[in-house]
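The protein record filed here.
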Amino acid sequence: MLYRLGIFFAVVAMVWVIYDILVYQKRMKDLQKILWIAGAIVFSLLTAILYFIFIKKGKF
């Protein structure tokens, strides 16, 4: 049960990062978008945390 919950949160995090990049990050360079999306697919929760800290909070 806990395993399924972890997978659910990982998928939600991945979808959130990809959606936010494609819809809201118009000024981000294409290479950065590709790297963030690839990171979201491979390391979904870690990438979502890093994306929130560096991009959404405006520190990058």
